[in-house]
Amino acid sequence: MKNIYYILLIGLLGCTKSIVFELPEIEQTIVVEATVESGLPPRVILTNSQGYFEAIDSSILSDIFIHDADVVLSDGIESYTLQEFNFNGLYIYTSLDFGAIGQFGKTYSLSIQVNDKNVYSTTTIPQPLFIDSLWFDKYVAYDSLGLIGARFSDPDTLGNCYRWFAQRINSYTYNYPPPFDNVKGTIKDSRPLPPIGSSTDDKLFNGLSFDFIFPRGKDGLSDGPDDNNVESGFYKIGDTILVKSTTTTYPIYLYVRAMENAAASEGSIFSSPGNLPYNVQGDGIGIFYGYGVSYDTLICE
Question: Any idea what the CATH number is for the domain that residue 79 is in?
Fold first, then answer.
C-alpha cells in the first residue's frame, strides 16, 4: 500500500502545470440596497460593483458610491424624489417628506436613473405581527451570558415571512484590554443587528404557536470587543435589548436566506456558487426590502 501511495504522489506531482490567464474586463454594474419600512423614511444606497479579484482599500471604498442619481419612490399615489445625504462617509438617498415614511399595507415602486442606465423595483410593507413574549435564556456554561427566547403565534394563512433583529441599547460600564480599552460609556450596538438565520417563512409552523431562541448578530462594519471572545453571539446580564421583529415578503425571505448562507460559508470552495435572487430589474442588481416592523424591549436579568 505504501508503494502505491508514493507512485500516486509522484504521478500527481508530475502532472502539475502552471496555468496563466488574463481575466476579462468587467463592466461596472449599479448595485442597489434599498429599504422601506413602517415608521421610517426610505433609505437607498447606490454603489458600483467591483471585480472579484480587485484590491479593496480606503480609496476604493470612498469612490464606490454613486452620486447625483435620480431616485424616485412612489406609493402608487404620490411620488417622492430622494435626496443624497452623507452620514459619516455613508451616502444614502432618502426623503425628508413625512409622506415618504413607510406605511403598513402599501406597495412601493423605486425608479433609479444613473446617466443612461435605469433600475427599477417594487416591494410591499406587510401588516405587522407581534411577539407574544420575550425572555433571557441563560447559557448553562456561562452564568452571565445567554440568548433571547421568544414565543410567537403564526396566523393560519400560509405564506407569512419574518426577519428578526436586536440591538443592545445600553452602554458599556467597563473597558476591555487594548485596543478596546476606550469603550466604557459607548453604546454597545449602533443599530439593530440580524443574526445568521434571521429570516424564515411559515411552511413548517403555519398557524402554530411556538418558542424559539436567537443569538446576537454581529456588525459586519466593525468588530466589537465582545465579538472576539467567549461573549461572541451572546447577550449579557444587564443588557437592555431592543427587539425588532419584522414581517416581509417571500422574495425578501429568499434573498436574505441566500445571502446568509453565502456569509456562513465564509468563502468555502465547497459552497454552492450562484447569484442571489435579487428583486431589482434593469441595468443593475440588488434588493429592495419591505418591512412591517414591531418593537419590544427586554432587560436581561
Answer: 2.60.40
Rg of the chain in Å (alpha carbons): 23
The residue from 124, 145, 165 where one domain ends is 124
Residues 6+ apart with CB under 8 A from 79: 72, 73
The pLDDT of residue 5 is 41
Residue 244 carries which side chain, given as an amino acid letter? K
Does the residue 264 lie in any domain?
no
**Both 120 and 148 in a single domain?**
no
Instruction: Give the residue carrying C-alpha cell 418558542.
Output: 211
Residue 146 domain-assigned (yes or no): yes
Q: Which domain-ending residue is among 103, 124, 145?
A: 124
Domain total for the chain?
Answer: 2
Q: Alpha-carbon distance 101 to 52, whole Å?
A: 36
The boundaries of the domain holding residue 75 are 30-124
**What DSSP line would sit under 172-220, residue for residue?**
PSS--STTSTT-TTSBS-SS-BPPTT-EEESTTTTT-EEEEEE-----T
In angstroms, the CA 83 to CA 70 distance is 9
Residues 142 and 240 in one domain: yes
What's the pLDDT at 8? Answer: 43
pLDDT digits (tens, 9 = 90+) for 73-123: 999 999 999 999 998 888 999 999 999 999 999 999 999 999 999 999 999
Domain-located, residue 106: yes
Would you state the pLDDT for residue 223? 73
- Length in residues, the chain: 301
DSSP E strand stretches across 12-116:
30-37, 43-48, 70-74, 79-81, 83-87, 90-94, 107-114
Q: What is the pLDDT of residue 228?
A: 82
Q: Which residues of the chain have pLDDT under 70?
A: 1-26, 52-53, 55-59, 61, 221-222, 266-274
Which DSSP string corresponds to 139-176?
A: -TT-TTEEEEEEEEE--SSTT-EEEEEEEE-SBPSS--
